Amino acid sequence: MRIYLDFEKPVADIYGKIRELKGVNEPDGNVDLSAEIAKLEARAETTLEALYLKLTPWHKTQVARHPDRPHFVDYKKALFTDFADLAGDRYYAEDFAVQAGFARFRGQPVAVIGQEKGNDTDSRLKHNFGMARPEGYRKAVRIMEMAGRFGIPIVTLVDTAGAYPGIGAEERGQAEAIARAIEMCLKVKVPVVTIIIGEGGSGGAIAIATANRVYMLEHSIYSVISPEAGASILWRDATKAQDVATAMKLTASDLLDLGVIDGIIAEPPGGAQRHSEAVIRATGDQIATALEELSGLDGDAIRRQRREKFLAIGRNLS
Questions:
Q1: Class of residue 90 by CB neighbours under 10 A (exposed 0-12, middle 13-18, buried 19+)
Q2: CA 23 – CA 282 distance, rounded (Å)
């Protein structure tokens, strides 16, 4: 059963009528409603396209969080072969919100790090809804360090509302673990390519997104805090999240204009949740292009380019 977002109600209503007509349709009998059903299906498609042409930042936030949107495990299965998962941070425990390992991408060895939210109740609990604890970031540091040692490019896929804010995570050094991950991103002498596939929330995202190339799916979001949390802090009223989403400039187009990201991967009308294969394929093409662009640089040049990229953010804003 397809899940429709609030702003997609006009499309949901049309498909409701289609289901009713299909229930009484008898193409080989006395009631042939095939032509009417085809008209409604065409109308649903045009309505969906019109809605997705004028999405607000809050609408994009909803799309980025859509439960049917492809997750890290979907990209992992479709884009990478010979995947060897590596677990644990060698200090405390395994964290299932961050998945990492080594694989081949179109024949090329790569290190892969991604955040997984889960797609049903059990897997969401297992992966802690994509909110990593310190162990997840320390595992990411371990993988990046290994990749740097063996000269293997790093690909990261970001999808998290933020790092886990629980007491245990804070006691085990959540902020320090995130800082160490950012530090490793900045100093490793191999190409780092990041794709934000859903939510890119706060330090939980940038810990593995301090990359040479950062791209966003068209309807993903990337911000220092969630709109709801920002509204609660500023006005003590989470219902103002829509206003905060607009003010924070968290959409891909906003962040491209601000120079925070390097490009946008287009999504067909209806979003990645309706066209997962096409979007995953386009993501793979963008990763391949980025790795090719960076392949001619030596380690020092790669690290210098990455540092200069982040130091330049905000310099030319009026």
A1: exposed
A2: 37
Q: Report the C-alpha gap between 186 and 280 in whole angstroms.
A: 27
Cα–Cα distances (Å) from 258 to 161, 253, 315, in that order, read 21, 9, 10
Q: Is 43 left (phi over 0), alpha (psi -120 to 50) or beta?
A: alpha
Q: What is the DSSP letter of 185?
A: H
Fold of the domain built from segment(s) 61-312: 2-enoyl-CoA Hydratase; Chain A, domain 1 (3.90.226)
**Which residue bears the tokens 């963008």?**
286
Q: pTM here?
A: 0.92
Give the whole-angstrom CA distance, residue 311 versus residue 32. Answer: 65
Domain residue extents for the chain: 6-54, 61-312
pLDDT above 70 (res 27): no
